[in-house]
Inverse folding.
């Protein structure tokens, strides 16, 4: 690990770690409800309701994936060693995710252009959303459980199927359920009438399942690596673990309470986002300062200082622009979806 006394290099590396973490977090919270909505298509067979659901994300869905590109590209540029180790270990779920996102995007466009094949494209939209969500969870689980590397050769030393374990499958299902919760609360915010009432009910069920999965992941993760256990349960850190658990339960309570009040349409989504952000922060706390747990730190994987400075100038310009047009798009298309208007 690079000593703190070296100052600038340490600061740049930490800054880039936070930029990439921020990009991934924004992708998760923005594209999460989008993917969750796609999976909820499966339980909404009425064509009119599906049209309303899709119209609720039509203006923003493709822009959400900008953050995935920023996160992946930032990892390649700022932490090339980590990129060269993580990608070979997770090729299968990452390729599955990318193919699913591509197929899902095609289905999004094509379902509006046909009547005869619309059901087929709806199935493709559901399947692409589910596969992308599952693959993202499996990739996260694969990273958390650790990657077998050869430090001397600076290369991946594991097998093709190392990513496939009970833990990664559980995290994959947890991400799917969490995304569906975001999708349901998004639709509570964006729709009204019978569709909104059904989504309030489904958000209750999905919320309970999400809280359960957060608990399972939180209890399982510390036993995957010794570093995780000491980070959460060593010394006074156990107080932090208790505070995080209490905060998650408080957010869940707020979400369930506002789901019961009909005029509280925005708060369930906000509380659900809070749960995701807190869970993400907890995972980041578990991993830091490792980018490949618990083998490679962010300093060991970082690009040269001059490269980080050069890229940081570009990020300082581009990230605010992306944030600005993203916020503007959501502001322009705020409010309820009109069932008689939308994407076509």
């Amino acid at each position: 690990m690079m000593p703190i006394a070296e100052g600038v290099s340490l600061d740049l590396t930490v800054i880039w770690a936070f930029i990439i973490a921020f990009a991934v977090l924004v992708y998760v919270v923005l594209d999460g409800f989008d993917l969750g909505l796609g999976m909820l298509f499966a339980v909404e067979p009425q064509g009119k309701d599906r049209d309303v659901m899709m119209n609720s994300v039509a203006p923003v869905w493709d822009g959400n994936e900008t953050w995935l590109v920023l996160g992946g590209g930032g990892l390649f540029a700022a932490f090339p060693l980590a990129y060269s180790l993580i990608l070979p270990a997770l090729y299968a779920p990452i390729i599955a995710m990318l193919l699913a996102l591509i197929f899902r995007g095609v289905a999004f466009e094509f379902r509006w252009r046909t009547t005869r094949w619309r059901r087929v494209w709806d199935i493709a939209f559901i399947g692409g959303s589910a596969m992308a969500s599952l693959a993202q969870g499996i990739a996260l689980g694969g990273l958390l459980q650790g990657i077998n590397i050869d430090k001397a050769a600076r290369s991946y030393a594991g097998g093709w199927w190392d990513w496939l374990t009970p833990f990664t499958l559980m995290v994959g299902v947890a991400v799917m359920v969490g995304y569906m919760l975001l999708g349901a609360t998004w639709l509570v915010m964006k729709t009204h009438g019978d569709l909104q009432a059904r989504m309030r009910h489904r958000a209750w069920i999905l919320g309970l399942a999400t809280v359960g999965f957060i608990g399972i992941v939180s209890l399982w993760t510390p036993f995957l690596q010794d570093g995780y256990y000491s980070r959460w349960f060593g010394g006074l850190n156990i107080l932090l673990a208790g505070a995080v658990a209490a905060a998650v339960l408080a957010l869940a309570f707020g979400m369930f309470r506002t789901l019961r009040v009909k005029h509280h349409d925005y708060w369930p989504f906000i509380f659900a986002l809070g749960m995701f952000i807190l869970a993400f922060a907890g995972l980041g706390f578990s991993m830091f300062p490792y980018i490949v747990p618990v083998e490679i730190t962010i300093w060991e994987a970082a690009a040269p200082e001059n490269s980080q400075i050069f890229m940081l100038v570009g990020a300082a310009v581009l990230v605010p622009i992306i944030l600005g047009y993203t916020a503007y798009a959501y502001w322009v298309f705020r409010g309820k979806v009109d069932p008689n208007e939308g994407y076509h």
